[in-house]
Amino acid sequence: MGAGWTGAVAGRLLTDAGFAVEVLEKTSVVGGHSRAETMNGVVYEPNGAHIFHTDNQAVNEFVNAHGLTRPYDHKVLTEVFLSPDDDEGHLLSWPPQVDELKELPVWPTVERELASLPLQPTGDNFEDFVVSMMGRTLYDLFIRNYTAKQWGRPATELSARFAPKRVELRRDGHRGLFRDRWQYFPPNGINEVIESVLSTVAVTLDSEITVDDAHRLGQDYDAVIITAALDDFARCPGELEWRGIEMRSRFEPTDGPGGVLTPAYVTNRPSTRVPYTRTVETKHATGQQIEGTVVSEEMPGAPRRHYPVLTADGANERRNTELAEKIAEHFEIPVYFAGRLATYRYINQDEAIADAMAVAHRVATELGG
Ligand SMILES: Cc1cc2nc3c(=O)[nH]c(=O)nc-3n(C[C@H](O)[C@H](O)[C@H](O)COP(=O)(O)OP(=O)(O)OC[C@H]3O[C@@H](n4cnc5c(N)ncnc54)[C@H](O)[C@@H]3O)c2cc1C
Questions:
Q1: pLDDT at residue 235 is higher than 80
Q2: Is-contact 74 265, C-beta < 8 A?
Q3: Measured from the CA of 338, which atom of ligand 1 is nearest?
Q4: Which residue segment(s) compose the domain that 99 sits in?
Q5: In this predicted model, what pLDDT tens digit does every residue of 16-60 receive, in sequence order?
Q6: Is the CB of 206 inside a 6 Å radius of any atom of ligand 1?
Q7: Is 91 found in the same domain as 60?
Q8: Residues 148 and 276 grouped into a single domain
Q9: Which residue's CA lies nearest to atom 34 of ligand 1?
Q10: Using an 8 Å Cβ cutoff, are 94 and 77 in contact?
Q11: Distance from C-alpha of 76 to C-alpha of 347, rounded to nearest angstrom
Q12: What is the pLDDT of residue 350?
């Protein structure tokens, strides 16, 4: 169930292995959260910026085989206001770079704080962990308000578990956001790559499946792989906490076909002067030569299932595991859960593909293919 990366790749691998596979997708398009759209011909991303990056060789070979090969080095900027009286923000790299910070008037304070940090970051909640990684001043400038806007709750209530993956203080001058060996951005958005993956797979669109379909599915199929959000699938919305975004996307004219309007593909806006967390202008990444551009403001707090909420006590993850067990009890055939939504994990596209490879292997082994 689901024609995002996870469902598409699992479907493809099992089809290639000789199984009769059907991918059932609730919307009228494939691609899930990674999908791009166009506005007046300009490619933009209605579910937020999606940069493909991986260090996983098998995943890299798989996506290369489906046309994802155009290299892209993703660099993010952050607009930082050093004092409430500043009219204009400073555009600094994200993650913060020590060599850039040295040029700022707050550097003596930052330097003192950095000198007194523990060797390894510590703390169970997100705020304690990040402050112990970069000091209070940098945390306040880059992270505190961004996190509060993004999650709608203080960072002290959030888990430190995703901090090492998302937050860093750079001392080695590496400007790219990622350090993975392979990074790509397809010129027309990721859709055509996912469509290539699904080109040999039977896909049924506009087909929303829920736990109420368990008996029927048991008659038609030998196994199911669920990539849907489990509270949605089990028809108990509210059982799991999610955080969603709304991309407020607008078309703007430009000065010539190469024109762009914001400083970078992704510009973080941690200030409370604006309600959104970042601006996204995908044209920086596609390099499209076209009149006009689309700028999106990423508004947090939309009622959508974009991010699992990983609280410090792990309660939501436990609820997801319980839901998976309850759903499996409704089926008379084996049920597998994979991908970002069904396993309630904050994973990237390459990890979703790796998940799909693992689940396809399990299904093939257990069904004797
Ligand atoms: C704001 C944001 C930014 C991100 N940025 C990046 C990034 O820069 N780089 C990166 O690598 N990753 C990024 N990701 C993560 C990436 O989107 C996911 O890892 C990837 O899309 C997961 O694929 P999936 O197939 O597991 O889930 P999804 O893409 O969510 O696909 C699930 C599919 O299942 C369908 N579905 C749901 N319920 C049902 C049902 N009941 N019946 C049938 N079908 C159903 C949905 O319509 C959807 O098509 C980002 C995610 C978000 C939310």
A1: yes
A2: yes
A3: 26
A4: 76-166
A5: 999 999 999 999 999 999 999 999 999 999 999 999 999 999 999
A6: no
A7: no
A8: no
A9: 2
A10: yes
A11: 19
A12: 98
